[in-house]
Write a structure and sequence with these properties.
Length: 501
């Protein structure tokens, strides 16, 4: 099984194996309505392989979190493409995220629905854990909303129906997702929805899913999720229910149709005040049916939300908003046309591609909440900024985490040549979301003099001479760099993007 930890990895692996004894695959499943009893033995369908990261050809970044990155990865020998989730062992152990990683691995292994991201296999090395997931080439639904400004009602109806269908299955097997939002709704290459990110999932007591011992009995009101989608009952420390997901569903439909979340505000505190007051305002162009459905899903009383009542999802799926939806043949219907990235033919390593802060955090409006209620670095932001995608393999090597503070995430990293009068030195330049600029000597793994950060362009600016050469200027020092991969402009945009966020 996947071990967690750096120096203490073996001990943690033994602890994990003690809790989860692996067996040969069993034909029993969860699809036939038969309740699977909890047990200390877990049977995994997705194998644990002995692969290494060198077995894969890594491509573009799909997303970045506090302890993980998701990257497009092509298996060199088979040509199969995956979304490879790369998780930092040291950070997971340090921040007590072990149970989240285990839960996602165990739950994804057992779920079987076309609207849920599939887990293909896992492996690990000294620094990282790896989960190979289905590759959803269409990206996040959030990106479609951003590129289009907002979705048409027909587009929203199509996507929303597929989310409802998948969430009905998740609730049907006794799981509460607890982090439904457009960033966790992925699109296949042909434009169909798959729900992802099951690290915050909460099993109910009658769940049909085999879970970790005592996980269904953990603290009932654990505070997880994303600020703008948190329901009022969670803010009041009520136990988790299916109604939590239905509230987030209402927020998601609102965001599809308007382009922003319904309770968006300048700070997390103000967001929470608006949620508690149910300060909900609809744009004039929303149809009556859309307003009515969102209004009902955002009911202060969780049990009154469509999908939470005694008739289950029947009342939700019969709502007039879904007129014309064929629930039995959802995924046979043609999907809306995807809005592509501005330059879809660009070479990933050398061209100036667009990256936004939705993947690295920054805006309090979409900060991800950790169990203790603090904002973590898995947040998303609606602030649009041109931030360069990380193209180097070093971006995924968690050894660089040693130079970061808890919760700090890497935005961009490159092996550069530092130009000096007498000799040129190779350095690892790291830009983090704190924000911070680090210069690391990769041969000695020691931090050199860091570049003093400032949001003021007069105190910190980047001057580009050509695609390979740039200078980072501060009042006391000018540092020149050469980038063999010609990403000088990307460094400039990445730094300026964090200055202006």
């Amino acid at each position: 099984m996947m071990a967690v930890g750096g120096g203490g990895g073996e001990e943690m692996e033994r602890d994990f194996e003690a809790k989860l004894r692996l067996q040969q695959p069993s034909p029993a499943g969860i699809g036939g309505g038969k309740t699977v009893q909890r047990t200390n033995s877990i049977t995994f369908r997705a194998p644990q392989e002995h692969f290494t990261i060198d077995d894969f050809e890594l491509g573009k970044i799909f997303g970045v979190g506090s302890y993980s990155k998701v990257v497009r990865a092509k298996k060199k020998d088979t040509g199969n493409v995956y979304a490879l989730k790369i998780m930092d062992k040291k950070f997971i152990a340090k921040e007590n995220k072990v149970s989240y990683v285990k839960m996602e691995r165990i739950v994804l292994d057992q779920l079987d629905h076309p609207g849920i991201i599939g887990l293909c296999f896992t492996f690990q090395d000294a620094y990282s854990l790896y989960m190979a997931l289905e590759c959803c080439e269409g990206g996040e639904l959030f990106d479609q909303i951003t590129r289009k400004g907002h979705l048409t009602e027909d587009e929203a109806r199509f996507y929303f129906a597929e989310v409802v269908d998948a969430l009905e299955y998740i609730h049907g097997v006794g799981l509460i997702h607890r982090d439904i939002k457009p960033e966790n709704l992925l699109l296949t290459s042909d434009g169909h929805i798959k729900i992802a990110d099951f690290g915050s999932v909460k099993p109910t007591r009658d769940s049909q899913i085999i879970v970790l011992p005592n996980s269904a009995n953990e603290k009932a009101c654990t505070f997880v999720g994303t600020a703008a989608y948190v329901p009022p009952e969670v803010l009041n420390s009520s136990p988790a229910t299916f109604g939590n997901d239905l509230w987030a569903l209402g927020c998601t439909l609102y965001q599809m149709l308007s382009g922003s979340s319904p309770f968006k505000d300048a700070s997390e505190w103000l967001i929470f005040q608006r949620i508690i007051a149910r300060d909900l305002r609809f744009p004039e162009y929303f149809s009556h049916e859309a307003k009515d459905l969102i209004d009902k899903l955002l009911d202060i009383e969780p049990s009154r939300r469509p999908g939470a009542g005694p008739d289950g999802y029947i009342s939700l799926k019969k709502h007039p908003f879904f007129k014309g939806i064929d629930w039995k043949n959802l995924r046979k219907a043609p999907a809306p046309r995807l809005a592509l990235e501005q330059d879809t033919t660009a070479d990933y390593d050398s061209q100036d591609t667009s990256w936004n802060l939705t993947h690295i955090g920054g805006s309090p409006a979409h900060q991800h909440l950790t169990p203790d209620g603090n904002a973590g670095a898995t947040s998303s932001s609606e602030t649009q900024s041109h931030i360069s995608k990380m193209a180097s393999i070093d971006s995924f090597d968690s050894k660089w985490q040693d130079f970061l503070e808890p919760g700090e995430a890497i935005v961009m990293i490159s092996r550069l040549k530092k130009i000096q009068k007498l000799t040129n030195k190779k350095v690892q330049l790291i830009l983090t979301d704190k924000p911070k600029l680090l210069c690391v000597d990769p041969s000695k793994m020691t931090a050199k003099a860091n570049i003093i950060w400032s949001d003021n362009p007069s105190d910190l600016n980047v001057q580009v001479a050509n695609p390979s050469h740039f200078k980072i200027c501060t009042p006391k020092k000018v540092t020149s760099f050469e980038d063999a991969k010609q990403r000088a402009w990307q460094w400039k945009k990445a730094i300026e993007g964090l200055q202006h966020r």
